[in-house]
Amino acid sequence: MLLKRKLCVILVIAVVLFLMLASQSIQKKHILPHFSALPISKATPTGEETVVQPSEPPSNVTPDPLRTSFPPNTPNPEAEKESVEESQSHESRSCGCSSCISDLQGSDWFSQHYDPKQQPILRESNNNFDPEAIKWWLGLQHSGNDQTLDGVIAKMFQVITPPTADFRPLPSRCRKCAVVGNSGNLRQSGHGNLINSMDFIFRMNKAVTRGFEKDVGNRTTYHFLYPESAVDMERGVSLVLLPFKLRDLEWITSALSTGEVKMTYMRVKERVEADKDKVLVVNPAFFKYVNDRWTQSHGRYPSTGMLTLIFALHTCDQVSVFGFGADKQGNWHHYWEENRNAGAFRKTGVHSADYETQVIRLLAEEGKISLHL
């Protein structure tokens, strides 16, 4: 009897121990994983908690710039750099074009030749003539009279309106100009629409447009001439006088008033139709500047075409050049001439056609003009 009681007690104890072991096994299986999934915190000496940050990528891995993103309202350093550079580039430009002739950066050759202080237009006063330049100019073509330059200028501005135009570049505008020469290479060029699309169009001497509109366009804003090449101006066109001598200044005064000047070194047009309020006269000192800096004394003095082109460099922001040089067969005739054996420009020896052509090509190579041949 006593033995049976002992066996019962042992059995009960065994059952209790079994149940306790089974309970612990269930807790380990179902409860431990939930704790191990939580982030682990480490106590700092101050009792504060520091969250463990995700590991950074290896330093030898180059980030993909196409995948680099910046959170909202977070500055993008590269974008800011580009914005600053673009702003500085815009501020450094003197005009409103993407590139400006008067900006001297990028071409040492151009910087050595171009003088931004030049005053291309003759004004009623404050011309600040260089005595050496005027002496040189007076020697180009002798006029055979005793009048002074200041006296002739004063009489001239009693007939024509003193200019008020400011040709300095401004960031608020982009002046695109076409300088259209008279070379036979304009024949069948098809440049007419491109020329007409420019803001200002410079033509020279006896340039003809009627019948050649497809190749040379039909718009003109500035027409450069001298007494021996004078033609009447259409309404709205500015006559720009290239005075090669003192007599030329007397001629423009007379041609727009009394008509008394009938001769220079040859018979000239006594009167010319032009708006007196639009007449401009190129500064005599500008001739010496072009001769010294640009044609470098090749030829006796620069040609009408070269003077007009350099004038454009000082009054425009971008310049496109058409109709300069010989045609593809090497002829130097005018585009309206049928005689391809013409070409007095090159034969006289007064101007150096070859050297001027080299200068024009260099201007194109340096990105200062767009040359259309």
UniProtKB/TrEMBL annotation:
Q: Where is the composition biased (Basic and acidic residues)?
A: 78-93
Entry membrane topology: Single-pass type II membrane protein
Entries under CDD domains matching the protein: GT29_ST3GAL1_2
Q: Which reaction does it catalyse?
A: a ganglioside GA1 + CMP-N-acetyl-beta-neuraminate = a ganglioside GM1b + CMP + H(+); a globoside GalGb4Cer + CMP-N-acetyl-beta-neuraminate = a globoside MSGG + CMP + H(+); a ganglioside GA1 (d18:1(4E)) + CMP-N-acetyl-beta-neuraminate = a ganglioside GM1b (d18:1(4E)) + CMP + H(+); ganglioside GM1 (d18:1(4E)/18:0) + CMP-N-acetyl-beta-neuraminate = ganglioside GD1a (18:1(4E)/18:0) + CMP + H(+)
* Pathway participation: Glycolipid biosynthesis; Protein modification; protein glycosylation
Gene Ontology BP, a term: lipid metabolic process
EC number, as in UniProt:
2.4.3.2, 2.4.3.4
| A single GO molecular function term of this UniProt record | beta-D-galactosyl-(1->3)-N-acetyl-beta-D-galactosaminide alpha-2,3- sialyltransferase
Taxonomically, which superkingdom?
A: Eukaryota
Q: Where does substrate bind?
A: Q141, N182, N205, Y265, Y301, G305, G325, H334, H351
Q: Which Gene3D superfamilies match?
A: Glycosyl transferase family 29 (3.90.1480.20)
UniProt entry tagged with the keyword Protease = no
Recorded hits in InterPro entries, A to Z, give: Beta-gal_alpha2-3_sialyltrans (IPR051757), Glyco_trans_29 (IPR001675), GT29-like_sf (IPR038578), Sialyl_trans (IPR012163)
Q: Does the keyword RNA-binding apply?
A: no
Identify the GO cellular component terms for this protein. extracellular region; Golgi cisterna membrane
Entries under PANTHER family matching the protein: ALPHA-2,3-SIALYLTRANSFERASE ST3GAL I ISOFORM X1, ST3 BETA-GALACTOSIDE ALPHA-2,3-SIALYLTRANSFERASE 8
Q: How does it assemble?
A: Homodimer; disulfide-linked. Homodimer formation occurs in the endoplasmic reticulum.
In Swiss-Prot or TrEMBL terms, this protein is called CMP-N-acetylneuraminate-beta-galactosamide-alpha-2,3-sialyltransferase 2
